[in-house]
Amino acid sequence: METKLAILTTHPIQYYAPVFRMLAASPAVNIKIFYTRGAQEESFDKGFGRQVKWDIPLLEGYDYLFLKNSSKDPGTHHFRGIVNPYLINEVTAWGANALLVFGWSNRSHLKALRYFKGKIPVYFRGDSHLLDEHRGIKQSLRRALLKWVYRHIDYAFYVGTESKKYFLKHGLNEEQMIFAPHAIDNSRFADLENKYEKEARQWRQKLEIKADQKVILFCGKFENKKNPLLLLQVAKQMQHRADLIFLFVGNGHLEEQMKAAAQDMKNIRFLDFQNQSCMPVVYRLGDVFALPSQGPGETWGLAVNEAMACSRPVLVSNKVGCASDLVKPGKNGYIFESNSLTDITNKLKLIIENKDSMSEMGGKSLLLIQDWSFKRIVEAINKQLSNL
After folding, report:
1. What average pLDDT is seen over the chain?
2. Torsion of CA 337, 343, 348, 353, to 10 degrees
3. I need a surface site. Which of 5, 100, 141, 323 has the fewest CB within 10 A?
4. Are 16 and 35 in contact (CB under 8 A)?
């Protein structure tokens, strides 16, 4: 019998579209993606504070359907933001004999888990972790809720070490766990002909960054979760270092505050949000990539994957989900204590002490990230489905 895998996810994103294309090309499985947020060419991203439409193809090479979303306040920002009255009928009519659901925290996805459990194998993919937990009655109640939710799945594709701990804590056992790593399109960030490095050097000149200056890069949303203000404090402390520039790329609700604080600081540069086609160059503007997130909600940090694919050492807080998997202290970067100005500053100094060590760390980043690939995700899904 042909395996027909229905995949439920909210909307097309650059981190999953290539996986869907690769799955669609697999002879062993027939897939169809059911997008639950509804058809939107672009959407308002609250984190960036602007309309966002990605400039790389996200809907090519696989079968998909945008489901009608009848929510009065559509979006992924709350539980009732995704309401698909025809979801069950559409998946059933297509003839799915397996279901993969990305995330449960909206009405339609949870409804699908509950309806199809026991009818066809139900798989789940999520990247939550335990790093933000605090003891108390609220956490106990949430733990009980999550154990109930995960009783409605058969298997979980976990993305890394912290993700696995989370699923085990909420009632799943080892036999239900399948490793399918969080990944980015490593090949899209590769620079085999040194083209991106050359473009980055030219861009740095336009930003009035000297060739002998080291650039500490933050790239993402200017929001509390990402905590760019901590890196801004580091820049303030290190103003005396003429060899250092701190570059912040993105937009968000903290932007005005950040720019006001940096008004008289000569070691800071800002760039607006950059779309996907520019990112292989953007990461190469920096010599070190920093992600100082404080949580809650920094479930993985795929920007770290991207920076590593661009051969950059990484400086990551211990609240970032990928830290324990991707950051090898002293080899390709360092992990620092979240919100500790002293720790992030000391760890940064360890990376930038000389350019040779930075280059060596960047090379190790590139080697480490090769195994965190779309190919491994597809292999994990195909292997599991072959057992049906």
Report:
1. 94
2. -140
3. 141
4. no
